[in-house]
Amino acid sequence: MQDNSTTVKLLEFQGREAMLPHTELTNLRMRSIIQTIHVGKIEPMEVLRVDAKQGYVDVSKKKVKKEDAENCKTRFEQAKQVHRMLARTAKLANVPFEKLLAAVAFPAYIKYGHAINLLKTATTDPTVLDAYLIGFDPKTKDILLSQVLHSLKLKEVVVQAKVNATCYSSAGVDGLREALIKTQNFGEAVEPKMKLLVHQTACPEYLLQVKTDDKVAGRKKLHDAIKLLGEELALVGGEVSVKEEPTVIEGLKADNREKAPGDEDDE
What we know:
This protein is α+β, with helices and mostly antiparallel strands. The chain has seven helices and eight strands, in the order E-E-H-E-E-H-H-H-H-E-H-E-E-H-E. It has helices spanning 33-36, 66-93, 97-112, 115-122, 138-151, 172-189, 215-235; strands at 5-10, 16-21, 46-51, 56-60, 157-166, 196-202, 205-212, 239-249. It has a four-stranded antiparallel beta sheet with strand order 6-7-5-8. A two-stranded antiparallel sheet has the order 1-2. Strand 1 and strand 2 (16-21) form a beta hairpin. Helix 2 (66-93) packs antiparallel against helix 3 (97-112), helix 2 packs antiparallel against helix 5 and helix 3 (97-112) packs across helix 4 (115-122). The longest helix is centred in the N-terminal third of the chain and has 28 residues, at 66-93. Residues 251-267 have low confidence and may be disordered.
């Protein structure tokens, strides 16, 4: 860490060093550099400039959007998961790790966008691995499949968002209730289907929740549901504002009683 910049390592590029100018740390006013960036912490960065001749790379932290940062972290964690599964398979099957990477991971990134998608497909259709393991002993496939099934057990998470929904027109409570019911039904009416729960937490605040094993799809489902709620309320003279963006939480914190939206006391 220098006066005007900090040296960082690009983990997805074999630890290549890059420079993070302190002007690219945050858009907020900084009181202390040490409080803004911590040594050893993994952060998503965006490449600003590359000098191929000199070998210099400049990166930015403040230009990374929140959604892009979450996607980057997810992709990085999935890459480490793929690495662990293949490394364990190579050790147990006594085959060179680099050879297994070149045969399975690298082609899968090209075809599927991420090697994790191939391995997820293999949990329901193991035959997809055959084309990638040509020349390997049959036991290698069995070991890899066992590692995949062990590591990729589906884990449900809860994604939730909070909105303020009001309708002060002549449609009143009835208009609000109908819009909320349509929003809740949207969860299982449109692919990917997820059970969407809507609860009133405090007038006019509502909590929207879905349970899913796909965090990205869960966030998108809630974004689409909020958009639909806004459109439905606009038709009856109401409006909606987002209080908390869709976020993944550890457990279901709200009451999960499946009461119809709008069954709250009228005020």
